Amino acid sequence: MKETGAVSGVSVAHSRATVDEIEAAGGDGVRATVSDLLARDGVEEAFALQTCNRSEAYVVTDRTVDGTVALESFAPDVRGGAVRRLDHEESLEHLMRVASGLESLVLGEDQIIGQLREAHEESKSAGGIGPVLKDAVTKALHVGERARNETSINEGVVSLGSAAVRLAATEIDLTDGSAVVIGAGQMGMLAARTLDDTAVSEIVVANRTVPNAEFVAEEVDTPAEAVPLADLRAVLPDADLVIAATGSPDPVVGPDHLADADRLVCIDIAQPRDVDPAAADRPGVTLYDIDALEDVTRRTRESREEEARRVESIIDEELDRILQAYKRKRADDAISAMYAGADRVKAREVDRAVSKLEAQGGLTDDQRETVADMADALVGQLLAAPTRSLRDAAGEDDWETIRTALRLFDPEFDMPPKGPGGASDDAPANAPAGAPDSVAEELDD
């Protein structure tokens, strides 16, 4: 008898890992990752989640050691400190935290809900979603929705990038406008994503390393182009908004870059500065620096941290519910196995008893029913106490008792091996001499 599968998980995310490590862990895509995990020994279900800030995988196995071994293939080349391994309860809780936005780079951000749904569908298409992971992901999405409907975890702006876009919208009409994001790091990514939710018609991502700029450009639905920093002189004069967020020690935008600008809002969220303060002297150029944004983000971050505590209370409540359901399922599996095995023995022994009684002079229908009822009553009374014990064991996290019951009541336990000539060896090998091999034999005596 198999146990109800347990979840094992592994996470490579922004809180511990670099962008390159996250990409290395999830380089094959969700479907390929799920297919690979399903091919591993003991893996019954698999789910993968891959975004720019995290690469994660979850498997369901009957033995937790099989889950641990299977997930060793997920991020083999990523340093150990960047990898977080999760047991069953940790996996369930972590998925809820991810869905609610508590594990996001921007606390409470909404995009992760859609990403989690998409990952579920892709994993399902790859054959990875079964009853355990379906319950786990569905519960996580439910928690994510509750977090956003019952708290203000996603209200306001937290990142400097999103604050910059919000500030720009108060200065100019971004409808059909052109925006330039300078820098392809985390702040540049957040700025580009926030711009993607506005009415701008074009986003240009400029970066020293063009492939990194291309990566950011591919993350947005708005038409986007990646260019090197050397092209700034050509693209800035046509822009309506510039958000600068590189890690350069020296300014990358000077007054001469904006000589032909007409009406331009330039927001410098880099530290040290990306934009020479003298650029503000150019006609038509409005320049804001990081000091203009920090107060806005500080107030919103503090507010969201208060809401995060409310979200954690929701997670505690929902985690307890799913764990209780899981415990009941584990106990029910053992109880079902116990009754199924007992019913098979009962049916076999009733048939033998009735056959022998028939040979002694025949039975009426009422007598046959009496024998069957007696057998049912014996099974019910004998298994009542073990049933209570198994449910108590589940409630107390006594998995060893449940595992023992599952082994004792394996579906094959009451099917004796064949003896010489194909006859069944019904009596246990260690049975004392003269012991009856069935209830029917007792009736013969």
TrEMBL record:
In which domain of life is the source organism classified? Answer: Archaea
Q: What keywords does the record list, in alphabetical order?
A: NADP, Oxidoreductase, Porphyrin biosynthesis
Q: Where does NADP(+) bind?
A: 183-188
Residue positions of the active site:
52 (nucleophile)
Q: What gene name is given for the protein in this entry? A: hemA
Q: Return the Low complexity bias intervals.
A: 423-437
Task: Give an example GO molecular function.
Answer: glutamyl-tRNA reductase activity
| Protein task | Catalyzes the NADPH-dependent reduction of glutamyl-tRNA(Glu) to glutamate 1-semialdehyde (GSA).
Q: Which residues form the Glutamyl-tRNA reductase N-terminal domain?
A: 10-151
Pathway membership of this protein?
A: Porphyrin-containing compound metabolism; protoporphyrin-IX biosynthesis; 5-aminolevulinate from L-glutamyl-tRNA(Glu): step 1/2
List the residue(s) that the UniProt entry marks as the site Important for activity: 94
Could you identify this protein by its name?
Glutamyl-tRNA reductase
User: What are the recorded Gene Ontology BP terms?
Assistant: protoporphyrinogen IX biosynthetic process
What CDD domains does the database record attribute to this sequence? NAD_bind_Glutamyl_tRNA_reduct (cd05213)
